[in-house]
Amino acid sequence: MFEVEALRRQFPILQRQVHGRPLVYLDSAATTQKPLAVIEAERHYYETLNANIHRGVHALSQEATDAFEGARDKVRAFIGAARREEIIFTRGATEAINLVAHSWGRQSLAPGDEILISEMEHHANIVPWQLLCEATGAILKVIPIDARGALVPGAVDAMIGPRTRLVGITQVSNALGTVNPVADIVRQAHRVGAVVLVDGAQAVAHQPVDVVALDCDFYVFSGHKLYGPTGIGVLYGKQALLERMPPYQGGGDMIAQVTFEKTTYNSLPYKFEAGTPHIAGAIGLGAAIDFLQHIGLDAVARHEDRLLAHATQQAEAFEGLTCVGTAPGKVGVLSFVMKGVHPHDIGTILDREGVAIRTGHHCAMPVMDRYQVPATARASFAMYNTIGEVDALFRALRRVEELFLK
Q1: CATH of the domain at 16
Q2: What is the pLDDT of residue 55?
Q3: Which residues of the chain have pLDDT under 50?
C-alpha cells in the first residue's frame, strides 16, 4: 500500500498554509518539493564536510570528494549507465543540452545537415539547436504533433533521413504529459547514423530509465524535478562520443597540464566539469535518488496514475473546461483552459484558495501556437499529492466559475 500521508510528513513545506489555507502544491512539473533526507544531506555537507573536492589532501577535502563521487555512482546506477565516466554533473538539463550543442554540434555539423526535434519540446531543447544551426548552417526540422498531443503517426519515419545528424526529443512533455516512444526513435535515428539526445527532465521522477536499453547517445535531466536541489543536473553521454568532444568550458579541474604554450585536458568525466562544482547539490541529488528508490518508482507511478485518472474524470465532467494534451499513456500533467477565463486569472484565484498550479506557456510556446491558445493552466502531480488535493483543485475551479462566469 502506498502510504501517502506518511510520505507527506517527509516534506516539511507541505505542512505550511498559504492565504490561511492548507497548501495544495500541484506544480511539481516546474519543481518538486524536497524531502527531509535531501535537506539534511545538504545541511550535513555544510556542517561537517564543507571543503573543495579533488586535489585536497586534508580530511575534509577527501571526505567531501568521496561524498561527491559517491553521488555520481548513484546517478550512474539510477539511469543504468555502464560507466561512471559517462556521468557529467551540470547545472541542470538546460546546461547539459547546451554542452552537447556546443561541444558535439560545432565540430560535427556542416551546412545542410539536419537536426530533428518535436513540436512539443521545452525551449531548452529548441533554442540551443537554433543557435547551433545559425553557427553551422545546419537546418532545424520539427516533427508535428496531433490534436491529442502525440507525435503525428509516421512523421518520424518520414522526416529522419540521410541528412539527419541529431534527433533531440523529450521523453515526457512538460506541457502535455505525453510519453514519447523514445526507444523506437533511437533505433530509427541510428539506422541513418544520427545521434540522439533525450531530454529526460520530466521522465526520471515518474518512470524507470535505462540509458543502455534505450541506446540513446545523450540523456539529460535536472535534480530539482527529481526531489533534489536546484542548480544541479546530469548529462549522460556514451563514452566514445564524450572522448571525441572538446571541453565546453575552461578552468580548474578540467585540465591535466597547463602551460602558456599548451593545455592538455583531464580524463572523463572531469574534462566537462570546469571549476568548483555544486558539491552540496550533487550530494543532495544522491540523497534524492536514495529516497525515490526506497519508495519505488513503480509504486510512485501507480499512485500518480490514480491521481491523473481522478483529475481527468472531473475535468471531463466540468462544463467549459477543455483539456490540452490527451495522448494515451501520459503521465501526471493536466493542462487545461476554461472558456471565458484567462489562465492567469485561474491561477490567481486558485492561489487564494491555497492551490498552487502553473499558468502560462510553460517554456513551450510552440505547443501553445499548435493549440492556438495564449497559455494554459497546468496542474502536475507527484508522489506526495492526494485524491483530496485533486478534489480541492476542482472546488477551487468552481470558485473561479462563480467569480467569472456566473
Answers
A1: 3.90.1150.10
A2: 84
A3: none
- pLDDT at residue number 1: 59
* Residue 350 backbone dihedrals phi, psi, to 5 degrees: -60, -40
pLDDT, tens digit, 9 for 90 and up, residues 189-240? 999 999 999 999 999 999 999 999 999 999 999 999 999 999 999 999 999 9
Catalytic residues: 363
Q: Hey, is 84 helix, strand or coil?
A: helix
- Is residue 185 within 8 Å of residue 198, measured between CB atoms? no
**Using CA atoms, how far apart are residues 102 and 131, in angstroms rounded to an integer?**
9
- DSSP E strands: which ranges in 79-210? 87-90, 114-118, 139-143, 164-170, 195-199
Question: Which three cell numbers mark 171?
Answer: 521523453
Q: Which helix (H) or strand (E) holds 99?
A: helix 93-100
CA 356 to chain centre: 20
* End-of-domain residue from the set 293, 327, 361: 293
Note down the domain range covering 154. 39-293
What's the CA gap between 383 and 205, in Å, rounded? 9
Residue 402's CB: how many other CB atoms inside 10 A? 10
Domain boundary among 239, 269, 293: 293
Q: Which amino acid is at 42?
A: E
At 283-318, the pLDDT tens digits run: 999 999 999 999 999 999 999 999 999 999 999 999
In one-letter notation, the amino acid at residue 255 is I
Report the alpha-carbon distance of residue 86 to residue 208 in Å, rounded.
Answer: 18
Residues 76 and 156 in one domain: yes
Calculate ∠ Cα 207-213-215, nearest 5°. Answer: 115
CB 171 within 8 A of CB 163: no
114 and 9 co-located in one domain: no
